[in-house]
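# nightly structure sweep
# worker-07 picked up a monomer target from the shared queue
# config: single-sequence mode, recycle default, output format = structure tokens
# input follows
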Amino acid sequence: MKLNELKPAPGATRNRKRVGRGPGSGTGKTSGRGHKGQFSRSGAKHRPWFEGGQMPLNRRVPKRGFHNKFRREYQVVNVRDLERLPEGVEATPDTLFEHGLVGKRLQPVKLLGDGELKRAMTVRVDKCSAKAREIVEAAGGTVETVL
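# output follows
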């Protein structure tokens, strides 16, 4: 088999639909767009949430409570997860990301005190609970918080 002999599997490709080519084609005259209306016109489009002038869902639904737009979302890492890091590695947001303990490199990280730590290690995170700090320091490590 050579590159110039490659072709799609049978039935994988179809011919392009040629519209507006007479009544015998099945898509003549209105070209499959029906009669009149917004979508028979050229350039017809609307936003996915547009409901034809009806009051949109996000405006119909009642809203309650206070929504703080300055809220900070933290990625949570428990003390037991630090055991998964190799020996001698400092726990920073970058190393946590590289070892798959957090999903986003730039979102702040908070250390929580669920689990145990059997070895001393340096932990640099954005925030830390009191219990987590206590566990890390009891194991002989140190915790440095940025925020």
